[in-house]
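Usage

Read records sequentially. Each one opens with the input sequence:
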Amino acid sequence: MYKSFSIEIGGKTLTVDVGRVAAQANGAALMHYGDTTVLSTATASEKPREGIDFFPLSVEFEEKMYAVGKIPGGFNKREGKASENSVLTSRVIDRPMRPLFPKDYRNDVTLNNLVLSVDPQCRPEIVAMLGSAIATCISDIPFDGPCAMTQVGLVDGEFIINPSQSQWKEGDLQLTVASTSKKVIMIEAGANIIPEAKMIEAIYMAHDVNQKIIEFINKIVAEVGKPKHEYESFTIPEELFAAIKEIVPPAEMEEAVFTDVKQVREENISKIRERLEEAFAENEEWLAVLGEALYQYQKKTVRKMILKDHKRPDGRALDQIRPLAAEVDIIPRVHGSAMFTRGQTQICNICTLAPLSESQKIDGLDENETVKRYMHHYNFPSYSVGETKPSRGPGRREIGHGALAEKALVPVLPSEEEFPYAIRTVSETFESNGSTSMASTCSSCMSLMAAGVPIKAMVAGISCGLVTGDTDDDYVLLTDIQGLEDFFGDMDFKVTGTTEGITAIQMDIKIHGLTREIVEGAIQRTREARLFIMDNCMKPAIAEPRKEVGAYAPKIVQIHIDPAKIGDVVGQKGKTINAIIEETGVKIDITDDGAVSVCGVDKEQIDKAIEYIQIITTDFEEGMILEGTVVSIKEFGAFIEFAPGKEGMVHISKISKERVEHVEDYLTLGDHVKCKCLGKDKMGRISFSIKDAQ
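and closes with the structure output:
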């Protein structure tokens, strides 16, 4: 039965239609927020997937170009591979919702969000986030909801709930917060160096809005929600755990995991597994779940060590950072390079500079084509964790990590006017054991400085972990978590920033929410850690940006010309500008407002190209001295080219102080001569003199 529900959020009406479309999905909600329309569905398979030990959840955010009245670019003229924005939006939906499904649920679940129309005042991303939560809550899929999500912007010092596209892009804050009825369960933020206290204020403003949305969702569920279906549980038999502990006592397991070398720990666990497989060789049922049982045993051991004994697997104090190292210029000939090492996590970042014309153009669900001038890419090869598998290009994790490090550094980049370059940094993961995205932030910052990019401030990042007990006040925060603490812990709270404030946050949890005390404690802990990293590791390697770009980087000089003169520089069918490029070897970009960027490696050739452009765009005035090349000889004089497409005529009487009978006696094609502008003659033509310039 079709029913419609409405609520006002951020001054705009959200309407949810249930029972109108997609009736065969387990749950479906047709979402309207302003004129933005998104169909959100939740669908589960009837039976669990065999042979897996994880919950198979997939989240999709489908951008359809018809939603903004566009036809897709490219040859096929249809949507293809998911855009970066689509991937990042899917991740933001996945992260808070995944922990709310049963841990032993093995049925495939797909949360699909189809963007049907976009109102620039109402971002489709937030509509999809709420739609996924509502579709899942009203479905028969087991889910410990409801949950809700709210976005917060900051424009002119004022917080804005669910800002418009332009407010989101141009404001000082891009914050997304997800909550249950009691706690915060996910935080994602990009910020223009926001103080910690103001960030916490924004987080809990969003949390309060989420409580109103949760009440709204509860009303929908009460009217149209389906009973949750029964499912086949995949819990580990207690008899198996007891048998494992008989063979491998807790003290032995503690000794196996208590090491700061990942390879040693993995070897220890491998030997234990071999013993258990031999012991249970006759019990196929136990062997089938032995891997998961051993994982759970390790997890309980590590959590008990941390929570009760305050002992970390590598012996560090709870707030201690692993050994740090940093260096720059490790790669020759590239424009900038830096390597950052924290324990067994090592990232090498390479910076490349290029003309602004090489900025990335993005065809997405925005009113206008979006251009990215700064691009950060992150690669995670299998060798970084001692594994082997073929490279298939960046997956969702790589895209997400790259976007986080990019978001961390955008607020400190110089403006295009200050530094007219497109910038790409690439983080290559050489070794991984926890928080490679935060190491990428540190190495990228140093790489930018080494390349001569005049960033406004140094940026560092660190992750804070968490292990919780049975009550809200029974918990331990861990600074700089390694892989094991991430796998077995409850939280990965990543924060980047300068000495003055936060530039990015990404918070993932595996439990049903965080108290405010934990959130504030984690933010404070990460601030202390990033300041330590900057002072004790990054600054000794490179304290400030280099004054100039490197020898192998392109040099870019930007000048401004009268927009009305752009056609003179370009010439008919590009003849003039191409002649300048061919002669000097530079690259020239001109914008509609008259900004001209000249790019090249040879400074002399850049100066020559700029001189040509200035000559072309400058009106001849009496008394002006110019140098040019003889390009044509006539009986009455010669034509001199001062720059491609810019010529002047020297009358035969103005060639020499002596009488000239034949122009050829004094001038030859290709001669380089100096001329003086005589102004306009009686016919109104500009004339030049060689003899008056000598």
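Summary fields computed downstream for this record:
- The chain is about 30% helix and 30% strand.
- The chain has a mean pLDDT of 93.
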